[in-house]
């Protein structure tokens, strides 16, 4: 989903009108032209959250997976008949 | 309460201790906060007229002195890693010493930065006299405030460790925050001082 | 559509309205289709005695096509709209035909000052004509405007031109227009700028070349004879 | 977690004083209700301000009953207050904090939040921020009048805005409010990660929890730059710095950059929980499994990610490099794809259902129908070419009210009427609920459809009297119609308030599970006691197993063991 939309977004970016490179109305913008700074900082701010939270969540996901697998291994070692994961949950309660 | 009816409380999976996860999320928000400050700084600097972008009276930001301060801060981070490993190995006394060293190094950084501020202020660099100065005090000051909070946290951790009552969650939480303070500093240093 | 309410008075006003029409047709069709299906489903599957709901997980590809095909359609129509939208945007804001005359627009709390080039057609010369709250332009002439602000952010909006551009203090922002219809029109401030934001109307007067020349002669004569009316003097006194 | 459970069990016995129980409670349900009631009170303020300024627009210059003549300065202050209150002090606290606090532990099957004291602190900060905002009405110069977007230099310099204290208090209130939700968000996410009932995998979590957690993540990731900007603006206002002052090398557009970086994701921060509430209500009352549960989550994640790449579409004509506008037009139109897919999924969920038109269901269905209008009109504004015309007109206003009203009111009413039995243990009156529903929905459309038209006709926003603009005189009839719609809308709200308060004490007693729903909160008694569940639930299946073939009941709660197919759900009532 994300990948697909990103691909389309990139494709569209490259398909944007070529005349956009020449920009007569951009000339006088500001004392020093800080257009590039806006663009660079925009990209940084936009990409950072995806990176940081993606990283944190991926790490948590891996840890969760590991813990789950460890718990399952523990269970199957203990139980004589191999119970399903959810039955294992019940065992833990009763 | 009927809780007592349940022989054994249900097991819940906590792959990452709640304190650490909460702190990580908080740190993520803090990173975005500093990213906002740094992006504001970068944009303003790129757009400001060259003459407006300087400190009054020809003062230059003391990059060399701050490099020394930065090294102190980095060392503190490294020492804290050592403390972490000693704690993991159960060498509590040694860990306490490393933890104390890390705390003192961190406090030294804040004090050295304070001395630097004192010098700048005495030469007439205030928040009002230039936008560069305003950004400098804002960004570095915000970082110093975070550092001070983290040092208090580390100090409390050391005190509790000495008394043998340091919950692991507390240590990891304080540790995570201190790593954030240490790691964000080089970004600020290279962006703001040069 | 905007042209139901407001005349089109610039070369790109028609483009903007056509884009609006295109979006209305595309989006309107999909909107009506979605609402129709939605209400039909509500009516068709209302609770009735003895009927149990079906168990549809919607996890298989076969079931999911009911939402994935429409979403591909949305994507395709998005791209279509995008192409037209970017072309219109490009014509208005990015590429501009060469200027025949320049005009300076200065916004402040809460008035507009317009600096016209005057009879010699060049800005920043002695015969510039400054007016407050009315802008005089000539039919079928390409203008480049230079937008300034003296205090806060304002927005220069000319609805009949379908033109809008914020005025930012400390910057000069360029834009262009070419009037295609004579008459008197509204200019509004479109960005909140303080207490008098609602009291910041200006008038746009588009004249034929002959009439415009007549106005210029009168205005420059007046300006040199009386050294400006009170209002003009006030603005010039605060000037750059 | 078990330590918490035990401590709750100990504390549950002795009676607590009123202050301890309701004002200083760390119980997530109490905090959720505190947020709810504070949000509802703030909605009265937001509603009163809109009444005053809509009256002024319909009958310019006349005395407004209960207010008097509206001056230009008052008008700006009223508009600003309405915007900030409705977004920051109504939509955010009710949708995220109230429902989040109340539902997360209940739907995850645990006894409380992971950080209960942090939770209490969050509410206290929020209350403080609301009080500061209200206090700004009584300071010299009056409340801030520079719009909820607070663009500097207008907001930075009292010489421009003439509200030296109002502007500062507004800014402090907003910043404090953000800190409150930051703390709350951390709590929500950590709880959802660490306190799920045994057996509850990530894909067994109800959609509304997913949505609140995603919204909290988006909020946390986007709010930092705005807090940075708010501190800079505060320094500009009070300490004479020049961050946004071009004369000293500052950049006024920078604020817009920082503000909209937060401002646009904020839309999704409130939209996602609303969509979650609608999903819960729709599945329950159509007795259907949610269509493509996982796809809903993936589209929500996609929306969250793309929401960080669209914000500059608020600045198309703000003096930024126009080439950037092209980029943001692309991303803005792209975000319509996942949102449209989510709408299609919700519509598809109805297929094959057995739809019961209870009050919550009516609200949920109305949400879809009305939000579609808000969604499609966004295309006009996301496309840079037509935004040149529509920017800052009433078209924008009508567009975002067609998104925000469904979010902040329609979805909230759906959620409130749906979870009311769980919150207070009694049912709301269905007949009054339906009268309130139809009055509100019809009046809402009567307000905002005319405003689309006035916007297309060239009405700009935040103008207190249109009589100075001759071209717009013909639109006065539409403005009056919108105001009449508003008066009708307001007139129908006391019915809800009466129904709400009356039902709280005199409604029909609801059992644990009056709607015969599946999710875990219905396994707890209504209202749930401190500690929530008499017996901590274990989860055996996903949250939307309605009308499963081969079962007598058309629902199958998450906590009922599979070997007991005929077990009634009221076993804990």
Overview in brief:
The complex is a heterotetramer of chains A (94), B (194), C (240) and D (573). Helix content of chain A is 71%, strand content 0%. Chain A has 94 residues and is an all-alpha fold.
What does this structure look like?
The complex is a heterotetramer of chains A (94), B (194), C (240) and D (573). Chain A is mainly α and 94 residues long. Chain C has 240 residues and is an alpha+beta fold. Chain C has five helices and ten strands. In chain C, strand 6 and strand 7 form a beta hairpin. In chain C, helix 2 packs antiparallel against helix 3. The longest helix of chain C is centred in the first third of the chain and has 34 residues. Chain C is elongated. With 573 residues, chain D is mainly α. In chain D, helix 4 crosses helix 9, helix 8 packs antiparallel against helix 9 and helix 10 packs antiparallel against helix 11. Chain D is globular and about 75 Å long. The two termini of chain D are 25 Å apart. At the C-D interface, helix 1, helix 2, helix 3, strand 7 and strand 9 of C face helix 4, helix 9, helix 10, helix 11 and helix 12 of D.
Put simply, the count of helices of chain A is 3
Counting helices, strands and paired strands, the structural category of chain A is mainly alpha
Oligomer: heterotetramer
The share of residues in extended strands of chain D comes to under 5%
Structural class of chain D: mainly alpha
**Largest inter-chain interface?**
C-D, 90 and 97 residues
CATH architectural arrangement of the largest domain in chain D: Up-down Bundle
- Provide the CATH superfamily of the largest domain in chain D: Cytochrome c oxidase-like, subunit I domain
Low-confidence stretches of chain D: 1-13, 565-573
Question: What string gives the helices and strands of chain D in order?
Answer: HHHHHHHHHHHHHHHH
Gyration radius over CA of chain A: 26 Å
Termini Cα gap of chain A: 42 Å
* Overall body shape of chain A: elongated
Major sheet details of chain D: none
Mean pLDDT across the residues of chain A is 65
N-to-C series of helices and strands of chain A: HHH
What portion of residues of chain A is helical?
Answer: over 70%
């Amino acid at each position: 989903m994300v990948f697909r939309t990103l691909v389309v977004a990139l494709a569209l970016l490259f398909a944007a009108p070529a005349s956009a490179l020449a920009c007569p109305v951009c000339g006088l913008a500001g004392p020093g032209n800080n257009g590039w700074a806006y663009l660079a900082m925009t990209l940084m701010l936009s990409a950072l959250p995806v990176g940081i939270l993606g990283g944190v969540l991926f790490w948590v996901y891996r840890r969760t997976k590991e813990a789950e697998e460890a718990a399952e291994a523990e269970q199957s070692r203990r139980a004589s008949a191999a119970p399903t994961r959810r039955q294992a949950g019940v065992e833990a309660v009763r | 309460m009927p809780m007592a009816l349940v022989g054994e409380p249900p097991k819940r999976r906590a792959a990452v201790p709640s304190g650490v996860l909460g702190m990580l999320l908080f740190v993520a928000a803090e990173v975005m906060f500093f990213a906002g400050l740094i992006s504001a700084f970068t944009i303003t600097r790129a757009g400001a007229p060259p003459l407006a972008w300087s400190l009054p009276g020809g003062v230059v930001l003391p990059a060399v002195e701050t490099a020394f301060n930065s090294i102190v801060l980095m060392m503190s981070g490294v020492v804290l890693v050592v403390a972490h490993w000693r704690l993991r190995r159960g060498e509590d006394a040694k860990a306490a010493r490393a933890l104390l060293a890390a705390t003192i190094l961190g406090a030294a950084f804040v004090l050295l930065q304070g001395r630097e501020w004192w010098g700048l202020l005495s030469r007439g660099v205030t928040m009002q006299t230039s936008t560069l100065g305003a950004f400098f005090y804002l960004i570095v000051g915000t970082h110093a405030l975070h550092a001070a909070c983290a040092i208090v946290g580390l100090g409390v951790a050391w005190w509790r460790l000495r008394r043998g009552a340091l919950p692991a969650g507390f240590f990891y939480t304080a540790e995570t925050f201190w790593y954030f303070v240490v790691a964000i500093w080089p970004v600020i240093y290279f962006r703001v001082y040069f | 559509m905007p042209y139901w309410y407001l005349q089109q008075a610039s070369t790109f006003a028609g483009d903007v309205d056509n884009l609006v029409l295109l979006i209305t047709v595309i989006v309107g069709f999909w909107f009506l289709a979605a609402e129709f299906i939605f209400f039909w489903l509500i009516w068709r599957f209302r609770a009735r005695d003895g009927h149990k709901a079906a168990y549809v997980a919607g996890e298989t590809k076969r079931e999911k096509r009911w939402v994935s095909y429409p979403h591909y359609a949305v994507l395709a129509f998005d791209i279509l709209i995008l192409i037209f939208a970017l072309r219109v945007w490009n014509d208005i804001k990015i590429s501009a035909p060469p200027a025949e005359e320049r005009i300076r627009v200065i916004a402040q709390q809460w008035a507009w000052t317009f600096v016209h080039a005057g009879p010699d057609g060049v800005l920043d010369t002695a015969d510039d004509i400054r007016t407050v709250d009315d802008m005089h332009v000539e039919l079928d002439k390409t203008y480049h405007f230079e937008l300034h602000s003296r205090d806060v952010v304002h927005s220069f909006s000319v609805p009949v031109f379908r033109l809008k551009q914020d005025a930012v203090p400390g910057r000069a922002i360029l834009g262009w227009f070419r009037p295609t219809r004579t008459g008197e029109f509204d200019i509004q401030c479109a960005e909140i700028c303080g207490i008098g934001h609602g009291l910041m109307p200006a008038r746009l007067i588009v004249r034929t070349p002959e009439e415009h020349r007549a106005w210029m002669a009168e205005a420059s004569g007046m300006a040199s004879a009386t050294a400006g009316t009170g209002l003009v003097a006030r603005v010039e006194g605060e000037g750059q | 977690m078990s330590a918490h459970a035990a401590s709750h069990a100990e504390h549950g016995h002795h009676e607590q004083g009123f202050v301890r129980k309701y004002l200083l409670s760390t119980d997530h349900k109490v905090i959720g209700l505190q947020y709810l009631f504070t949000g509802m009170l703030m909605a009265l303020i937001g509603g009163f301000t809109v009444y005053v300024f809509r009256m002024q627009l319909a009958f310019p210059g006349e005395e407004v009953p209960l207010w008097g003549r509206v001056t230009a300065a008052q008008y700006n202050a009223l508009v600003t207050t309405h915007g900030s209150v409705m977004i920051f002090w109504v939509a955010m606290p009710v949708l995220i904090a109230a429902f989040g606090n109340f539902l997360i532990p209940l739907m995850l099957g645990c006894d409380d939040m992971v950080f209960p004291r942090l939770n209490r602190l969050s509410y206290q900060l929020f209350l403080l921020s609301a009080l500061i905002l209200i206090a700004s009405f009584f300071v010299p110069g009056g409340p801030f009048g520079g719009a909820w977007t607070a663009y500097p230099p207008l907001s930075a310099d009292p010489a421009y805005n003439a509200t030296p204290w109002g502007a500062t208090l507004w800014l402090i209130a907003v910043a404090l409010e953000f800190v409150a939700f930051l703390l709350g968000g951390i709590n929500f996410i950590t709880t959802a990660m660490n306190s799920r009932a045994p057996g509850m995998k990530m894909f067994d979590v109800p959609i509304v929890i997913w949505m609140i957690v995603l919204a909290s993540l988006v909020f946390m990731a986007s709010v930092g730059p705005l807090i940075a900007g708010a501190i800079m603006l505060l320094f500009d206002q009070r300490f004479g710095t020049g961050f946004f002052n071009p004369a000293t090398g500052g950049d006024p557009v920078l604020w817009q950059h920082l503000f909209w970086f937060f401002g646009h994701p904020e839309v999704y921060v409130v939209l996602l929980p609303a969509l979650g509430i609608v999903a819960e209500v729709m599945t329950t009352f159509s007795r259907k499994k949610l269509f493509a549960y996982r796809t809903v989550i993936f589209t929500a994640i996609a929306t969250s990610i793309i929401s960080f790449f669209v914000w500059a579409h608020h600045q198309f004509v703000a003096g930024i490099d126009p080439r950037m506008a092209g980029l943001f037009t692309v991303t803005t139109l792209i975000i319509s794809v996942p949102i449209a897919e989510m709408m299609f999924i919700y519509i598809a969920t109805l297929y094959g259902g057995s739809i019961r038109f209870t009050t919550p269901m009516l609200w949920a269905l109305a949400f879809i129908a009305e939000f579609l209008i808000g969604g499609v009109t966004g295309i006009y504004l996301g496309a840079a070419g037509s935004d040149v015309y529509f920017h800052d007109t009433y078209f924008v206003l009508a567009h975002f009210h067609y998104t925000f009203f469904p979010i902040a009111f329609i979805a909230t009413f759906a959620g409130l009427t749906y979870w009311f039995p769980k919150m207070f243990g009694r049912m709301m009156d269905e007949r009054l609920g339906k009268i309130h529903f139809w009055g509100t929905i019809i009046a809402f459309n009567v307000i905002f459809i005319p405003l689309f038209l006035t916007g297309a006709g060239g009405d700009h926003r935040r103008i207190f009297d249109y009589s100075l603009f001759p071209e717009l005189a013909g639109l006065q009839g539409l403005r009056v119609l919108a105001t009449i719609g508003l008066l009708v809308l307001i007139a129908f709200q006391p019915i809800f308030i009466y129904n709400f308060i009356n039902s709280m004490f005199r409604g029909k007693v609801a059992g644990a599970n009056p709607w015969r729903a599946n999710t875990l909160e219905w396994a707890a008694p209504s209202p749930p006691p401190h500690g929530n569940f008499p017996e901590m639930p274990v989860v055996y299946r996903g949250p939307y197993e309605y009308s499963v073939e081969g079962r007598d009941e058309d629902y199958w709660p998450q906590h009922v063991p599979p070997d007991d197919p005929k077990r009634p759900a009221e076993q804990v009532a």
